[in-house]
Sequence to fold (197 residues):
Amino acid sequence: MSQLLSLVGPAAAEPNPAAATRSIITIQKVKLKDQHLTCEFTEQRADDAPPRSFALTCAELVHPDLTHRLSRLVPHLCLLAEQLTETPNYWPDTAEELPALFAQFTVTGFSMGHHQGGVTLIGQRELTGGRVLNLTTPYQSFDDEQGNYPYAPLLETELLEALAEVEAALRGKCTDYRQLDLFEQPAAAPHQLTVAR
Fold:
């Protein structure tokens, strides 16, 4: 569950942040298709208020920060769906992009467990010939007492960062796009000064 933050939608654009109404968002399902976010979540206007359920598809393109955060879940998708095996250099550095090993894979969404105690990752693997294999991992609890998945704490950390980006998208963070001019404006020619003698 996130901290109290501005409401979803137009009320979130309040010019005075201190006067803005606050809300709590709990994200349940996330799907990214054609750079558009679809999300199921609940929102509470206060701690003691009943939650309201929403399903929202954003018309704006998602911000690159969200797609980057989802890409950081790809190594977990590959291990949990038994698509790849772990090698000594399997895990990418936090600052670098994913290695070519993961080029065929994408995470297209996830579904949170009860009280956000675990996750099911949803993704795709591009096969030869351009066909796509849809992948769904088994549910993975973050409090894995049996230790079936040794990277559950890392998965939880990566997922919390993805959830923060999803919430930012729900509150208005998206790609800043503008319609460009149809015709490029010609550069002004420098004025030439002629001196008469």
